[in-house]
Amino acid sequence: MDERTLNAKELLEAADSGLIGIPVEIGAYLVLLTVEELSERARAFTSADIVLLPGGYASGALRIDSARSASEEEATRSATEFLKELLLASSGASPGALIAWLERAESGAKLTLAEMHDVVEASLVPLNREASERALARFLRKSTERLRAQEKARDELSEEAIDQELDALLGRVSEPSPSPSPEPLPERDALELHRPPKRRSNGPGFALSAAVLLAAALLGLYLSWPELFSGLFD
Q1: Tens digits of residue pLDDT in 29-76
Q2: Residue closest to 86 by CA, chosen among 150, 142, 136, 37
Q3: Separation between Cα atoms, residue 125 and residue 60, nearest integer Å
Q4: Of 27, 60, 137, 194, most Cβ neighbours within 10 A?
Q5: Torsions phi, psi of 41, nearest 5?
């Protein structure tokens, strides 16, 4: 269906799901326009046949896409069923006159479009056509936008689910994310890793210390036992 329109069945389903709320006055006014449309040509219809036009006023707020010609009685009962659906889905208390009309229809009494028109119109008194048309146009526009936004979100989710199912069917496995590279070592440290270990050297300091210690030891022996060294200096 055109994104700028919706049918009454969509509206009722959206109200049933809690997506939108239908004020009882809006519902009654929709029924009034429907009855006036049927007065031009009596037809049997369901809520799916009623196309709602967000930008329309009384002459174009709705149209009945049904070619099923019917007697006035049948057309009135179709409109009565539509009224019942709208009252069940609407928010707010239903006018007593409309409840009485539904009870009359259930009793099997003869129904006419003219009588139904008078009952519905009386429930809207005082009826300001111009204000009602503006309110209806605004309501239908907002409802259409909300419904289409929900459909778009649902379609996007469906596409994502299809992609996931296709990946699973083809055995695609997500490639693991590459491990982060280790941080490079500072240049000096990197050079040290490749430099051969230094040979440990005693150096001249060690030899000098050893010579001093040996000389001190010999001096001590000489002073303690000079006779040991007498032959060396003769």
Answers
A1: 999 999 999 999 999 999 999 999 876 544 457 899 988 999 999 999
A2: 136
A3: 22
A4: 27
A5: -155, 115
Angle between helices 8-17 and 72-89 (to 10 degrees): 30
User: Mean per-residue pLDDT for 195-221?
Assistant: 61
Region label for 101, one of left (φ > 0), alpha (ψ between -120 and 50) or beta (otherwise): alpha
Buried residues in 206-224 as b, exposed as e (16+ CB within 10 A): eeeeeeeeeeeeeeeeeee
The pTM for the full model equals 0.64
Tell me: the pLDDT tens digits for 55-65?
654 445 789 99
Q: Domain locations in the chain? A: 6-161
Closest CA relative to residue 7, chosen from 69, 58, 61? 61
C-alpha 98/C-alpha 87 separation (Å) is 9
End-to-end CA distance of the chain: 136
Q: How many helices (H) and strands (E) does the chain have?
A: 9, 5
DSSP-based three-state secondary structure for 84: helix
Question: From the CB of residue 96, how many other CB atoms can be counted at a distance below 10 Å?
Answer: 9
CATH of domain 6-161: 1.10.510
- Contact residues for 69 (Cβ-Cβ < 8 A; gap 6+): 41, 42, 43, 44
